[in-house]
Records
---
Amino acid sequence: MTSPLVAPAAEEAPIVIAVENVSKRFIIHQDKSIKDRLLHPNRTRKHAEDFWALRDLSINIDAGNTIGLIGPNGSGKSTLLKVIGGILAPTSGRVLHRGRIAALLELGAGFHQDLTGRENVYLNASILGVSKEETDARFDEIVEFSGIEKFIDTQVKFYSSGMYVRLAFSVAVHCNPDILLVDEVLAVGDEPFQNKCLNKIREFQEEGRTIIMVTHNLSQVTDFCTRALVLGQGNVIYDGAPDDAVAILREGFRTIEEASVVRERLERERAREEEAANRHALGKITDIRTMPSRTPMHPGDDLEVEVDLEVARDFERWNLGISLTNGLKQMVLMTTTSRANPNYEPINAGQHTIRFALPGLILPRGEYTVSAAFFDETHFEVHRLDDAGAFLAETDDRSAGMQYTPAAVTVS
Ligand code: ADP
Ligand code: MG
């Protein structure tokens, strides 16, 4: 059973829940088939089967965390919450906790059907260790939050599931718990109430309380949780970043082995992204300027393009490309330092200006922009700046299209 935790050594974020080698076995009694009963009439009608809903789980939870507990149906989420909440005893192992736990588990759990809402508030609060005087003091607030004032003196057996949840959540959060356990029940409430609950959960987070929530709404996990556990067949198949946990679940992985394949892939992807980010940090195109020999440009005019580049290290081999794009987003011309000058020099860390001379351009009329990209020795694109330097080209309209030429005509 759940018992108080001994004082931790750590100063910051003490462990508030310690699940130690917890296993939970259910014994499932199944009726034998008619055939079995005919063949073996003397044996008992039922046969019992062991079912391990939780298999040797060890989890430490630090104060102030919001843990998302996710996994397919039957993976053991509710069982784990009940064991943490002390509602179920583990078959082996133990759970230690520090502080007051309020649990919002199955629908109607902790509610007595024949009692009214009001009586259940007192009953529930007392189970959570709140005195009658304290409950008196908070009663109005509890009822107001629940929004079921009109039914507070009705027996709860006449409540809808939404009304149950409203009252149960309200009692749970007004009992000043250090640890709040919430099973999927929240989904039963209507949207305004769900939002109200989520706001309350945010408030709890800010106050440094610890929350464990089971939800099938995976965006709640990424939005609210600081850590997520994915359960599969009674095992923790993933424990870590909510984004990764959700990715693992979305891809339908159910075993530790399957999840570890995804985890490794996610780790590789992250390592690649990190490496790319490091490489992207090595160079930056800070400006592109275009200097036509005349404004607007006319066919045959020259264009000079200046690209300001800042690099964080020396580059023995490098390449910088520019492209001219017309108003239809079509690339009309591109060149690179290596095309324009195969013998260009290495560059040192620092600021550089790379000048391209583009003489005698024959461009159709229109607006153009220039993009530039800087590549390292492995042709990795370190940085690019799109559609920066803009300029206009003008023609005498003797031709139109992707090319311009001063078309002439004779008729004979
Ligand atoms: P989840 O909440 O992830 O859907 P549960 O923790 O409710 O899963 O259940 C885990 C497994 O344990 C399921 O296969 C369920 O059928 C079984 N189980 C849960 N409670 C009992 C019980 N009281 N008796 C027998 N089996 C149970
Ligand atoms: Mg469940």
---
Amino acid sequence: MSEPRKINIFGVTGSIGQSTADVILAHKERFDVQVVTAHSNVSKLAELARLMKATHAIIADKSKFDALKSELSGSGIQVGAGRSALLEHAEVPADISMMAIVGMAGLEPMMRAMNGSKAIAIANKEPLVAAGPIVIARAKECGVQLLPVDSEHNAIFQVFDQNNRAAISRLILTASGGPFWEWPKEKIELATRQEALAHPNWVMGAKISIDSATMMNKALEIIEAHYLFDMPADKIDVIIHPQSLVHSMVEYNDGSVLSQMGASDMRTPIANIISYPERLTTSGKRLNFKTISSLTFFDRDDVRFPAIPLAYESLNSGLYHSITMNAANEIAVEGFLNGKMGFGEIINCIRYALDSITKQNISTLDDVIMLDKHVRITTRNYIDTSLTNRTVSII
Ligand code: NAD
Ligand code: MG
């Protein structure tokens, strides 16, 4: 048997992080867990660090250092706290690092992980949306492989013939449509927090669940696919597939369409990536074709779900546009989750930010971080001054 694979997991306490831990714990002999990190959930981080026998556990919230230290006392696991500890430990050598932090908070850890890891498993899509060309260039420079965990991109990865890319005519991303696919526009705009969080097929973190309800998640995924597979915007399509069983497709010039199918269980793409190019046995759900009554596909609806066209607008406008869209979305989703504004206002916040920011050249990581910060301030001000008083959010 080959040597155990050294793995770091950033954001281990989240939905993707815990599914990664599940896969690893079912194959303990195959993995040697080094660094595990979380934002503030001390007890979960300590529990997972002990279970997986990690060498280091890092909590991003500095004030939780003593609590983590006492939870892990006697375990031999080294403990660290704060953003700088997170960034330093991102560089700990590993065969693969799983990036499962949510949002732009994961960008710098991802960049730093390229200094120590041979491969980067990307679940955390926002850094690619906001800094795609910079992430890709750095990966090439470091000779690091970028491996997609997002179910759609993982499906494409599994059927994308790298040796014959000129024969690929289209990538077709599938989208479940989220919880509101069958709702009229007026009802969607008044959706409650609870309704928006209730995804029909997947159990996920709060931010991506809201992104799935607005379908901003698919907009982010179009941009993610553009960078991961180096495909132009006009060769990336989206189709609604409410069952979430066909996880995306690649169409070739000869008319062949290759897809990867599977149950809606993130342990499948996670296992595929952390053991790549080998395959692990998972205990996840299996597809039973005898019980699938139908597989349906629909055209997207840009009137009820206006977020998707923004991705194409971004790819035609330049990086400043996708940084703005992504940052405004993070702030708007946070505002909605905190009860500051209604569901229908999320897209208005993003539009406001896009209208407020002037076109600019973005070429460095610092440019990305500066614009991202500026958009967050602009969007927060808009929410606090224009929305909070006039929108009643129903929670
Ligand atoms: P989650 O909210 O469940 O977990 C997020 C993790 O990031 C947690 O461990 C949290 O402690 C950590 N974190 C949050 N803020 C942080 C900060 N400021 N500093 C350091 N750590 C921080 O999210 P999730 O659903 O697991 O999603 C993670 C990423 O994977 C997202 O980018 C999401 O879009 C992507 N993704 C998720 C799924 C899914 O099924 N959940 C599928 C595809 C892609
Ligand atoms: Mg996805």
